[in-house]
Amino acid sequence: VPNVITIDGPSGSGKGTLAARLAVHYGYNLLDSGALYRLLGLKAEQEGLFHEGAFRGNVIPTEQLANLALTLDIQFIPDADQQLLVLLDGHDVTQVIRTEQTGHLASQVAVIPEVREALLQRQRDFAVQPGLIADGRDMGTVVFPDAPAKIYLTASANARAERRVKQLQNMAIDANIDNILSDIVARDRRDMERAIAPLKPADDALIVDSSSKGIDEVLAELIRYIDL
Ligand code: CDP
User: Fold this and answer.
1) Long-range contacts of 52-57, Cβ-Cβ distance < 8 Å, separation of 24 or more
2) Which is it for strands 84-88 and 91-92: parallel, antiparallel or unpaired?
């Protein structure tokens, strides 16, 4: 059985970076489940299911979305500096899936039970030998409930907004701290209050607050915990 380590938490808690570092440390596969929701949001937009950021006609096209989720043509290709190249239908969408607009689309498709169901097996397929680092919102609670090590990474909304701005600037994407902060707060609320797979720590998760800790410090703490 592959060893699965789950890392859940809100936007900007540092999960993505830490998951990538842990995957390198242990030589495990990496699942960026948020990217799946972002890719589905983007694909739905390309298919014309959205109009000005909301579902066209305010009707949720459940069946179409579930079908798109099952047939989504995606590839994750690791590059030299540990960044994942993300392809949708063979096209490089690495940058566009990281924008706040796509995050907004992602969090709308993510509240639909049929979509989550359709993505379940695709996510579990990432668990290969010798193991998997699974990054998301419901990795420890829903997708991999039997994982032997679960982490819930969080940080204050301010700390998370600041990190997000830096991350976007590194990708040469313009970002305004006030807009990012209000986006983060709105998306947190949507993720925590939704009826299906809400964002919350698994009962058996280690909760780590990274507000005033650097990446290396948190990484060391997580490795100590995982190796126990
Ligand atoms: O990078 P950031 O943490 O902002 O977002 P993400 O991890 O890429 O996820 C984008 C959105 O997808 C989240 O706001 C959630 O609404 C949704 N998501 C989810 O519902 N379940 C997951 N396992 C991962 C993401």
Assistant:
1) 53/101, 53/104, 53/105, 54/108, 55/108
2) antiparallel
| pTM for this predicted structure | 0.92
Centre of ligand 1 to C-alpha 136, Å, is 6
What's the topology of domain 3-223? Rossmann fold (3.40.50)
| Of 15, 30, 33, best ligand 1 pocket probe by most atoms within 8 Å of the beta carbon | 33
In angstroms, the CA 198 to CA 94 distance is 26
215-227 helix and 15-26 helix, angle to the nearest 10 degrees: 50
Given the CA of residue 111, which atom of ligand 1 is nearest to it? 20
Report the distance separating Cα 155 and Cα 100, nearest Å. Answer: 19
Q: Across the strands, what pairs with 153? A: 208
Q: Domain residues of the chain, as ranges?
A: 3-223
pLDDT tens digits in sequence order for the chain, 228 residues long? 789 999 999 988 999 999 999 999 999 999 999 999 999 999 999 999 999 999 999 899 999 999 999 999 999 997 776 678 999 999 999 999 998 899 999 989 999 999 999 999 999 999 999 999 999 999 999 999 999 999 999 999 999 999 989 888 888 888 899 999 998 898 899 889 999 999 999 999 999 999 999 999 999 999 999 998
**Residues with beta carbon inside 6 Å of ligand 1?**
11, 16, 33-34, 37-38, 103, 106-107, 110, 136-138, 187, 191
Q: How far is CA 193 from the centre of its chain?
A: 17
